[in-house]
Design a protein that fits this description.
DNA-binding, homodimer, two-stranded antiparallel ribbon
DNA sequence: GAGTGGTCTAGACCACTGT
DNA sequence: CAGTGGTCTAGACCACTCC
């Protein structure tokens, strides 16, 4: 007979969480093996596995093979946050989307961009600057470098109508990359583009993306004052 | 015979990603059912399910039951970021951790905090302000409200030695909550606590946590200038 | 070498949802 | 009502790692 209320892998997950928060299992402690838990909960090992795998992806437990059975948390949590396309984000908030290209320079060499994208120093880039608008008001300012060695097609694209953001989504092999979030004081250019005061605090996202063939693009996006991103745990 | 190189649920995932980026399957389009894919890849449906479930959790595909079979992406990506304990974060960066409690006020009523935590207007709170230090330098300033109705134990805790951050981890039932990230101009208090200029751009995290018994705590953390959080996709 | 987690399979039942 | 994804089971093999 299974304990009352323990149903499915989610039920098992909840029971494990309960034991952790009730201090029955303490941070750093090893917990029983999948087989033992399956016996206890009277279910298949795969079900326990699913629960523990999910807990591991949330950072609640750590799993290694063999005697490093399962270690309970050294408490870290993971939050997942959505990285939408700018136009979708604005339209979801009920705003009318607008886009204005400010700068488009082809075949630029930039040490900064090369280092950022870990590309050879003489790599040719397409440099773009643009503003995304919500109901006509500046929403975000985007400063982007596109690697023309790995993405020569971009050379012939006029980014006046379609933002690089959207074009890349539809035209680029699946990407990996890093993302950073931080806060910066608005530079003169950014203040001008976003119609805010110089020095105002702006939320910034920097990201690089790369494919199997090499680095693709690096972008720095600063949002109009007050922007925030939100997620639930 | 299975197609060359397609092995396991990860292989299936990669093949699906390849088809998406190769434009064989386009954003918004329905893709074959699990059963059909299992036949094609010559594997069990559970294996296909695992691949598709993972893609769904990354935001690459959307899944609904029945005819809303599987819709390929309206391209959103999800990043997961770690939410560590302040002390661990600082120590991982190689800094010596320090902590200084600035304010501790018990049985405070605050309309702002009540609204923030969706608690009744006359809820009693414990109000804390503290600074986290890395190698003696201000690292983050924390302004926290703890709901004494749901967590009366907190009343008797002296948070001078152990940060609320850590105490809560070890003493509070498993939590849900929201997190927001934004950028703010340093207030006078924050500038003082962080030894920076008033008005400087600071990275801010706001989060609330709640348990089954009700809301627990709300906290606003501002980091010293230059702080950034990082993740990979 | 033995034990553990990672994964796969073949089959099954259920819940939801569009027709 | 029928079809789809969500989940569970019982059994199996493999890779890695600790002893």
């Amino acid at each position: 007979m299974r304990a009352a209320g323990i149903k499915g892998w989610q039920g098992i997950q909840e029971e494990i969480l309960r034991r952790i928060t009730a201090q029955e299992w303490r941070p750093g402690q090893l917990i029983p093996t999948e087989i033992d838990l399956a016996r206890e909960f009277n279910c298949a090992r795969a079900t326990v596995n699913r629960a523990l795998r999910n807990l591991a992806s949330s950072g609640i437990v750590e799993r290694k093979r063999k005697a490093d059975t399962r270690i309970a948390m050294l408490p870290i949590r993971r939050a997942t946050l959505a990285i939408p396309i700018m136009r979708h984000e604005i339209e979801r908030k009920g705003g009318g989307y607008g886009y204005k290209l400010l700068v488009r320079s082809c075949d630029i060499r930039s040490c900064t961009a090369s280092r950022w994208l870990r590309a050879p120093a003489d790599t040719a880039f397409l440099h773009l600057q643009a503003v995304h608008l919500a109901d006509g008001m500046p929403y975000a300012f985007e400063d982007r470098w596109i690697n023309l060695e790995t993405l020569p097609r971009a050379r012939s694209v006029d980014f006046a109508q379609v933002s690089a953001n959207e074009w890349l989504v539809g035209n680029v092999p699946f990407e990996a990359g890093d993302i950073s979030f931080s806060a910066v004081d608005a530079s003169r250019d950014e203040a001008m583009a976003l119609q805010c005061e110089e020095g105002q605090a702006l939320f910034m996202i920097e990201r690089t993306t790369r494919s199997a063939r090499g680095s693709i693009t690096a972008v720095r996006i600063v949002f109009a004052p007050g922007h925030q991103i939100h997620t639930e745990i």
